[in-house]
Design goal:
The protein is of the alpha/beta class. The chain has 2 domains: 120 residues; 95 residues, no CATH class. It contains 9 helices and 8 strands. Strand 1, helix 1 and strand 2 form a beta-alpha-beta unit. Helix 6 runs antiparallel to helix 7. It is globular and about 55 Å long. The chain starts with a strand and ends in a 27-residue tail after the last strand. The relative contact order is 0.19.
Length: 242
């Protein structure tokens, strides 16, 4: 990673998985988990954090493209290093390639993780929030419009023990999604491969390969940077993207 400082800016859904792997003392900013729901706010918030870094640094960005939420973000005097993934789901699955494989095998899947369950960022809580903030008819309409495209709900855990521990909460969401949208429930064990690589980069123990987008000083993030060699066309729908 060279002599530059290394700074981490990441979605707070990665706090447990990535935070526990970072070298002690690594400067890190955990961003509001709800920013992925408003891509324009995500870009603005991320740019503000980057601009606040005084010394030229390697900035490890713990996001995927996230519904084009990173498009237009400028590196300034820094070097940005970002997982080459469409959204955080691919980070939990270990690679963009594994995400694409699952997408074509089972399109329109909505993913849960322990981080999203803990943050109450899932369809059931969304619905309860809509009921609290609006009338019943409006709540029904809003939740239908947001989740009507999904056909499966998949819980991603990083061990069988984690899946077992999260199942009760996941099944509450699954029951709601089954009743409302006919979603089937599924579970899979993810891999920390990309998260481990981010941690190794932060420790200077690795160099960024094809799994990462590197934006040098003066550069700007664009959507086509996230296409793998030989890949074209639209990316799979992101989590929560309508």
């Amino acid at each position: 990673m060279g002599e530059r400082n290394t700074v981490v800016i990441a979605c707070s859904v990665l706090t447990d998985l990535l935070g526990s792997r970072l070298p002690p003392g690594t400067p890190v900013t955990w961003m509001d988990i709800n920013l992925h729901n408003t891509p324009r706010k995500l870009a603005t918030s991320l740019q503000t954090c980057i601009d606040a870094i005084a010394d030229p640094s390697h900035v490890l960005v713990g996001y995927g493209l996230c519904g084009n939420g990173l498009v237009g973000v400028k590196a300034r005097q820094h070097t940005l290093i970002i997982p080459r993934t469409h959204d955080c789901v691919a980070i939990f699955l270990g690679s963009h390639q594994r995400y694409v494989q699952r997408f074509f095998a089972s399109p329109n899947t909505y993913y849960l993780t322990k981080g999203w369950l803990d943050a109450k960022d899932e369809p059931l809580t969304d619905y309860l929030d809509y009921v609290r903030d609006y009338d019943q008819e409006t709540a029904d309409y809003l939740v239908h419009m947001k989740y009507k495209h999904y056909r499966k709900l998949c819980m991603v855990g990083f061990s069988q023990e984690e899946l077992d521990a999260c199942r009760a909460d996941a099944m509450k969401v699954a029951a709601f999604c089954k009743e409302r949208f006919g979603m089937e429930y599924d579970e899979t064990i993810g891999t920390s491969q990309l998260i481990d690589q981010l941690a190794q980069l932060s420790a200077g123990q690795a160099t960024a390969g094809n799994e990462f987008v590197v934006v040098g000083p003066g550069g700007e993030i664009s959507a086509d940077m996230f296409l793998s060699p030989g890949e074209g066309g639209p990316m799979p729908m992101a989590r929560g993207e309508q």
